[in-house]
Design goal:
Blueprint: E1 9-10, E2 13-14, E3 29-31, H1 35-48, E4 52-55, H2 65-79, E5 84-86, E6 93-95, E7 118-122, H3 125-137, E8 144-147, H4 156-165, E9 171-176, H5 182-194, E10 199-203, H6 217-234, E11 238-239, H7 243-253, E12 264-268, H8 271-284, H9 293-302, E13 312-313, H10 322-334, E14 340-346, H11 355-368, E15 373-378, H12 382-390, E16 394-395, H13 399-417, H14 438-448, E17 455-458, H15 461-471, E18 475-479, E19 493-497, H16 500-517, E20 526-530, E21 536-545, E22 549-556, H17 561-564, E23 567-571, H18 576-584, H19 603-620, E24 624-635, E25 638-641, E26 644-648
Parallel strand pairs: 3-4, 4-5, 7-8, 7-9, 9-10, 10-11, 12-13, 12-14, 14-15, 15-16
Antiparallel strand pairs: 1-2, 6-8, 17-20, 18-19, 18-20, 21-22, 21-24, 22-23, 24-25, 24-26
């Protein structure tokens, strides 16, 4: 039902002068009129009873403050009538299974969607249709495409959630330039995970975590892109770096085989290709265990000069007896037990003299083991590829790309197998009115469950000497000030003070350095602490991400945290098991695990501290911008926080905004 006040017909279809004159209530409406007219159209449609609008019109929030005001009015007009919107500034959507195409795109001139169950949702209209067209040209069926544009109302997360529940979609592909609502996004990813539907996401763009939390080490090295990576990994989402990778993953995921404990077995006619594949598998963490010794011996009886370990090189000699190729492949499936199989046959897969017999042999293996992922790396024209695919094989020219896609299936399977985390009910924790000094920060975190080094806050030198006598020499002395967060940068930390004379001299030195380097800082004295030796220095912390809320961090600590940036992130709260996984993911983990004969550090105690700090961050609420312990001294007999910083939000800085812009 076209609505146009200036024409009696549009493209041969009778038109109506305005929305009230429509003979019935439309289920959905395309809005393709400029600016203010779009707002009036939505108002009229809502009053008519239409409940869904697809707004092609541009010129809203993407243009800045003036456009944001128009967009707010557009949403208000829709909400007055309970109407939902896609867009504005979007290209629309389609559902090919229903023959519904409210979208404008030249991509259909080259073909319509092919049958399949891969759904696409994209914040970019042009790139969304590019993904559809690329998938179609590769033979990947995409029955549903949604472009979300400015997301004034419905967002990327809403359509991921819909696809998670839809029988029309088995695999979800998404393109994102920014996550607007972390809570909705996380809920959608969890819905997809529980529905066992893989999500493949291209997330582009980088930005800082936010100016409000940029003063701590944790905040300065986080960046919302690294936090996004952590959130995607939490729900088993594959973050594709390129369109090619996204399509590779979607192509393989259509098999709906997601092995837990994925392993790769490789059979090849080229030793060099086998090495290439092994390198690719190691890079993505896909195990390639060796074939059993007895199976290797049997394979050598078939081809004495074969290399049957894994990758299994049957050599080109096997093509003199195609049955040998089938025997090798069957042994890898049955004796090796690999969840994923990759065969490298290069141009032999299209050879008129070889390919038909090779297909027949390998199809026997494929039919006998339908629960395995079986990929072929061959060079063949499209009609030959379709024949292999009709037999149930995955076909990819580049074996390295095949490895990446096969590895992703295992990560999907492991994510699907995880039980949902139990929701924690944490009582709120009262926080001080302003950013506390180090001693107060340590007291707060100690109450939250983070062990501290024995120490005393001392207002004068005599109190410092008395504290050192009680704690026991040697001691560490540090400037105590809520205004000096990183004391080592101004020489505000003195180590190894062995006796009273050294401590008295050190106290005077600290006061002089504070006066010289931070004359405006409030100095509350000196913190005297027990010196702990034989420890690995780590950093643990939390930062309030503007999208996903509090996020935990753990990494190599001390002054090197911003140099090496060897850190792991995860949304709070973090369980002790997840905290240990974070710790073990660090490149520097061997330092904790007894590298070069050193005693093993207490990793379990470190994990408990990370988990405790993460619970504190949730319970503290939005007033907590960041909390950091650096260094956290990790010894074989436990962990000891040597320094702590808590940073509070203040209304005058505009810090009291929630993770989604709320207060």
């Amino acid at each position: 039902m076209p609505v146009n006040p200036n024409r009696p017909a549009v493209q041969g279809v009778p038109a109506f002068p305005n929305v009230p004159s429509l003979p019935e209530v439309p289920d959905a409406a395309i809005v393709a009129v400029p600016g203010e007219h779009a707002i009036a159209a939505v108002e009229a449609l809502g009053a008519k009873g239409c409940r869904f609008g697809i707004v092609f019109t541009a010129g809203f929030a993407e243009l800045g403050a003036t456009g944001e005001g128009l967009q707010d009015r557009l949403v208000e007009a829709a909400r007055r009538h309970g109407m939902r919107l896609v867009g504005p500034n979007c290209l629309g959507l389609f559902n090919a299974a229903q023959g519904y195409f409210p979208i404008f795109s030249a991509s259909f001139e080259n073909g319509w969607p092919v049958p399949g169950k891969v759904g696409i949702v994209s914040q970019s209209g042009a790139y969304g249709t590019h993904l559809f067209a690329a998938a179609r040209d590769r033979g990947i069926g995409t029955p549903v495409l949604v472009t979300t544009g400015n997301e004034a109302d419905l967002q990327l997360a809403d359509f991921i959630d819909w696809m998670a529940a839809s029988d029309e979609v088995d695999v979800i592909c998404a393109y994102s330039e920014g996550i607007r609502d972390g809570t909705r996004f996380v809920a959608a990813l969890e819905a997809a995970r529980q529905a066992r539907k893989p999500v493949v996401l291209m997330k582009v763009g980088r930005s800082a975590v936010g100016e409000a939390a940029a003063r701590s080490h944790t905040a300065s090295i986080a960046g919302d892109d690294r936090v996004t990576d952590a959130v995607l990994a939490e729900f088993g989402v594959h973050r594709a770096r390129t369109t090619e990778e996204l399509l590779d993953i979607a192509y393989v995921a259509q098999k709906r085989i997601y092995p837990v404990g994925n392993t790769l077995g490789v059979v090849s006619i080229s030793g060099g290709a086998g090495v290439l594949i092994a390198d690719a598998a190691e890079a993505v963490g896909l195990p390639m265990p060796a074939m059993p010794e007895d199976a290797q011996a049997r394979l050598r009886t078939l081809v004495p000069f074969a290399a049957p370990r894994n990758p299994v090189d049957c050599t080109a000699q096997a093509f003199n007896d195609i049955g040998v190729v089938g025997a090798f492949a069957e042994s890898m499936a049955s004796d090796g037990g690999y969840a994923s199989l990759l065969a490298f046959f290069t141009q032999w897969g299209a050879s008129p003299s070889i390919a038909p017999r090779l297909r027949a042999e390998l199809k026997k293996v494929r039919d006998k083991h339908p629960d395995r992922l079986f990929a072929l790396s061959i060079l063949a024209p499209p009609e030959r590829v379709r024949e292999w695919e009709a037999d149930g094989f995955l076909v990819m020219e580049d074996p390295s790309r095949a490895v990446v896609a096969l590895a992703a299936m295992g990560r999907f399977g492991e994510a699907f197998a995880r039980q949902p985390a139990e929701a924690l009910v944490l009582p709120p924790i009262p926080l001080p009115a302003a950013t506390p000094n180090e001693a107060e920060a340590k007291r707060i975190l100690a109450e939250a469950g983070v062990p501290m080094v024995p120490e005393r806050a001392c207002a004068d030198v005599e109190a410092a000497v008395a504290a050192a006598r009680e704690i026991g020499f040697p001691v560490v002395a540090k400037i105590l000030s809520p205004d000096i967060l990183h004391k080592s940068e101004i020489g505000g930390v003195l180590l190894g003070l062995a006796d009273e004379a050294a401590l008295r001299a050190g106290f005077a030195t600290l006061m002089q350095r504070a006066a010289r380097h931070a004359p405006q800082a409030r100095i509350e004295g000196v913190l005297v602490a027990k010196q702990v030796t034989g420890a690995v220095e780590m950093v643990i912390g939390t930062v309030r991400d503007p999208v996903f809320g509090p996020v935990a961090m753990c990494g190599l600590g001390g002054v090197f945290v911003e140099i090496f940036r060897d850190v792991a992130f995860r949304r709070c709260p973090v369980s002790e098991a997840d905290a240990e996984a974070m710790i073990r993911s660090l490149r520097g983990f061997p330092l904790l695990d007894g590298a070069r004969g050193q005693p093993r550090a207490d990793v379990a105690a470190l994990a408990r501290a990370v988990a405790a700090l993460s619970r504190f961050a949730v319970a503290a609420g939005p007033r907590l911008l960041s909390a950091e312990v650096n260094p956290l001294l990790v010894r074989p007999d436990g962990v000891f926080a040597a320094d702590a910083v808590i940073e509070m939000a203040t209304p005058d800085r505009g810090d009291l905004r929630g993770p989604h812009g709320g207060t």
